[in-house]
Predict the 3D structure of the following.
Amino acid sequence: MQGGESVERRVPFVGRIDELQRIAARLQQREPCALIGPGGAGKSRLAYESALRWEAGGGRAAFVTLVGAVAGGVAADVARALGVRADSGLDALEALCAVELAYDLIVLDNAEVAPADVAAVVAALRDARPAVLVTSRAPIAGVPGLEIGPLNEADARRFFIARARVAQTVVDDADPATAAQVARIVAQLEGLPIAIDLAAARLASLDVAELAGELERPRAYTFRARTGRDPRHWTLKRVLDWSLDRMEPHVQELFVLTARFANVFRAADAAVMAELDVADATRYLECLADNSLLVRVRALDGYRMLAPIRHAALRRLLRSRSRRALDARFARCVAARARDLVEHVQSSGGYDCLAAISACHGDLLAVLEWALRRPAARLGGCIEVPALLAFFWANGGSLEEGMRWCGRLAACAEELEPPPRARAYYLCMLVALPSCAYEWMVALAPRAIALYGVQGDRLGLARAYNAYGIALLHTGAAAEALAHAETALRIYESIGSVRGIASALINCGSAHLDGFDDPRSARTCFERGLAVLADALDTDPTAAIALGNLAEVAYIERDGAQADAYAQRALVIFRERGDEVRAAWQLGLRARVALLRDDRAAAVAHLTEAFAILQRQPHREYGTGCVEVVVALLADDAPFQAAVLGGAVERIRAAWGLQHAIPARREARELLERIVAQLPADAPARIERNAATLEFPDVLRMARSAIARLAADA
């Protein structure tokens, strides 16, 4: 191949199969094609590989690098590289059209240096009919583009391992721990080949685990390495500078300012950060996206930066403006977005917002961290940020993360004015509930109630009483729980909150069912809650909770058909709303119903789905219910089943920290008094024998350790 000496080829070519096929199809039709993507995405290497394959098919290719070209001189550079000499009176463009070229594929690399000149050359070459392939960070007029983004996860991992060999390091991807670290590294680098290349070069002095940890440090992406022939790729700063230095100063400035956003941002956010009007901000952002410095996120009508590019840009940000003023503007942007999403959550139930919240999760946490440093001055003005995060943690995010942040939020709450302080306590209760931290809820609730009462905030007061009732029920104070739920119900009725009325009725029913063993009264409350929500029975998440509780009542009454019907209706709503944890609750219930109906296969199928969810989003009580079913599946006769089930559940609750689980119903209490000391001596052998006949190892994994502890203790 003519040319191509500047293309880095130390690492074997990896992946890009789909792109290679699409490029080949266009070139066969003699259609010009431009590979458009960010610096370091591997465009030049992909073009070089395409040219090699073209030659393997019998063609002749020339690779022309335009790195040093200047505007007005591109045609002459191309003609010189192709061995074309202009006759007297002809300029370079005319000469390219006038002679028969020795090559039927011409690659023009780094066309962003002079895109207008490259467009003219491509147009001139059409008459000579060679195939033309262009690489550029910006679109080329008249040349159809093919977007080249980062590598997918599998190819990124293969590229990392191959690049590690160049650094004289063997990465054992067959080892699960090493494979997990490699996956973590390429995810942090977002699959950008140049970033993977630079990072893997450090394996000469770090092992894989140390490199993964290094990438989480604040200055992780400042690493540098002479990883190839092209100086532009020796550091991420140089990769960024090559694109930015060709842009207008105001566009550069906006790019640097928007590096503050870790997640998706909108044109309105950029306008606030740069103190521009939205129209100008949109125009500049589109210019940056056209030059592959930003990624368009059309589904959210916004933009984002690839993480390695953003970290390189942040170094400019720290030098360019007052950090304090920028942080305040950034907080205003994120708080405004949080306010919009909170309003949607309150009006619709909000499960359709989980993806949007996830898309700005990093920025929300950054603002919360900023606010908690000076809570008295900052937190009250952006209280919507922890409000949105609390909904996310409780319904679709990490409860462990949520509890850590809520611990800090509660500790700072005393510095706040009464309205945000009350809300902070309530937000902590929202996250504590699915985390089963009931004693903490019992400690926080009276403070929130007192503050809401002083303010005259009846909606806040009703919510706090309602949450207090749930916490008390789980700590064994059923009478108080029912009283607080009824108080919440009266307040909700006085202000006409339909969803609140239904929620309070459900909590009243739960108190009757789990605190007083009164399924009849519980059924009445649950049915009243459904009646309140009659206009949205098949869509409202609160209605789904009522249906799920009615399924529990039907199961207690041994009406398997009705229990399964209620549970199935609830499950459909939870899944449609994205409420995976409560979907696991209903799957576990359906597994119990299946055993009641002697359908072991259905029980196993429901458990498998439930545990798949609970592995992603653990929930102690729902997990305990599923383990109960596993234990029952492993038992082969009724007395043995009763003994194993009763003892195991108590031990599991203790092991998982459920010191104050909902009191067992009458039959269970009597059973537990009799059977724990009567566990058969051959329990482990019988369990293993029965387990060997079943085909659900993922389900068994969670239950076996608890059962083994039970057998050993007995």
Summary: DSSP finds 35 helices and eight strands in the chain. The longest strand covers residues 131-136.
